[in-house]
Specification:
The protein has helices at about 5-20, 135-140, 255-265; strands spanning about 25-30, 35-40, 45-50, 55-60, 85-90, 115-120, 125-130, 145-155, 155-165, 170-175, 175-180, 190, 200, 205-210, 215, 220-225, 230-235, 240-245, 250-255, 275-280, 290, 295-305. The protein is mainly beta and about 300 residues long. The chain has one domain (about 1-305): Distorted Sandwich (Beta-galactosidase, Chain A, domain 5), CATH 2.70.98.10. The strands form 4 sheets. The protein has a 9-stranded antiparallel β-sheet with strand order 6-7-8-9-22-18-17-12-15, with no helix packed on it. The structure holds 6-O-phosphono-beta-D-glucopyranose. 6-O-phosphono-beta-D-glucopyranose binds near residues 104 and 254.
Amino acid sequence: MRDNDEGAALNIGTLNGLFAIPGHLHFEAGEGGLAKVAVNNAYAHCEIYLHGAHITSFGPHDEDEVLWLSKSAQYSDAKAIRGGIPICWPWFGPDPENKGRAQHGFARNSLWTVFGTSVNAKGETLLRLGLQDSEASRKLWPYVFMTEYHITVGKTLHLELKTINEDEKPFALSSALHTYFAVDHTDNVRVEGLEGKNYIDQLRSNVQCMQEGDVIFTGEVDRIYEDDTPCCIVHDGARSIQVAKKGSKSTVIWNPWAEKAAMMGDFDDEGYQHMVCIETANAGFDMRTLKPGESHVLTQSIVLCK
Ligand code: BG6
């Protein structure tokens, strides 16, 4: 056993001792030896890496997988996993201050802490993860903060990302639950719920446009919608997925299409035909400012509807 495997095994043993719930969840070594939470209850399965608090798999029993995960995803503590639900935080998109910091912030590349696990009255499994400022985070983003991520796994996957400003100065925050949905084929996908909404097209110098009809995919898409409606629905041939949200007035839709997918080392080349990103966000104009002591909660619920 190599040193780091030994470390991971020890860590996983400790986590299981403290937080495993038989019939609901346990911890194990995932790809690349990274610690992962495996949930399997009466309703569904779900997998969550502590690296990035990154959900890589969810599906109610007897249903196909709901999330898309790249076959060439890389699993290391230096990189975000391609697919699933990365957390973009405390900024969405390129470094807002042009200081050369990583796109989509540092939360997706940070090791999150397990705060607790439990089972609710419905028999759903709850996992509470957290990320606090550290010496490393303050070098990138000079604020004292607490972020809590509550994941509830039932027939619905319910996610709440809470940010608390524990500093003495205000900070600006943008974020997204960057959800990669698995679809049979992009040719058959339409996203309902955004008709008549304004969006900025990130592929055309952020020009403002208005959505006509449902969103369909015939090429690369990278848009931030002004969207305060409570839900949208991804129709994919035989199945539909409802994405409901709170605390968000923006929705990002992204598909890199063939050329950009081929340029990304961690994106399997044909994968773009089998995924669409619908991201519950506080992005673009929907950036939030939190004063000392203030908090903000971004909520997303995913459920299959027939
Ligand atoms: C989307 C952005 O949210 O994420 C795109 O709107 C970006 O512009 C995409 O290309 C993927 O980002 P990354 O950093 O995970 O490759």
